[in-house]
Structure formats: structure tokens, C-alpha cells
Design a protein that fits this description.
The chain has one helix and three strands, in the order βββα. The protein is α+β, with helices and mostly antiparallel strands. The protein has a domain at 3-40. A hairpin with a 5-residue loop joins strand 1 and strand 2. The longest helix has 10 residues, at 75-84. The chain is elongated.
Length: 85
């Protein structure tokens, strides 16, 4: 269940409550009983675990060329060439 942080517009108190994703947040009251509360939005905490998150972590061993080496064309390119001629 996610935790939401609210601030009371009347007394200024900041508090946190846990609500389900589908619960109505419009009926939230502050601990003092005021109904004029606003939700405080904060960025989520993200933790990257494992390899591949740094520029030095990928493509070890062999460098791939940036230009395609195959000379095949896609079906859409072939259709466009056929209709243009």
C-alpha cells in the first residue's frame, strides 16, 4: 500500500497516510480534524542494482560498429521504391 504525504492548509501540519491505489483521497483530514488538505508530490526513490547502469559497464570485450553492415532493405523501403518507379 503506498504512503501519501499531505499538508494541512489551515494549520500547516505535514502528515503521512497509507491508502490503496483505488481509494478516494478527497476525504482526507489532518490529525487536527481539518478537511482542507493538499497532497505533497515527491519524486520516487529509485535504487539501481546490478550491472549496466554506468557507461563503463556495457560493451566490454568487442566494440560494435555504429553503421549497419547488412545490405538488406526493409519491406516498407522496398514498397516505397516500387511505387516511386
Amino acid at each position: 500500500m503506498p504512503a501519501y504525504t499531505f499538508r494541512c492548509r489551515v494549520c500547516g501540519e505535514v502528515f503521512t497516510r497509507r491508502y490503496g491505489f483505488h481509494e478516494d483521497l478527497s476525504a482526507v483530514t489532518c490529525p487536527q480534524g481539518h478537511h482542507e488538505v493538499e497532497r505533497i508530490f515527491a519524486p520516487p526513490a529509485v535504487v539501481f542494482k546490478g550491472s549496466g547502469f554506468y557507461i563503463t559497464d556495457h560493451r566490454r570485450g568487442s566494440e560494435k560498429s555504429k553503421s549497419p553492415t547488412s545490405k538488406t532493405t526493409s519491406a516498407s523501403q522496398q514498397a516505397a521504391t516500387a511505387t516511386a518507379t
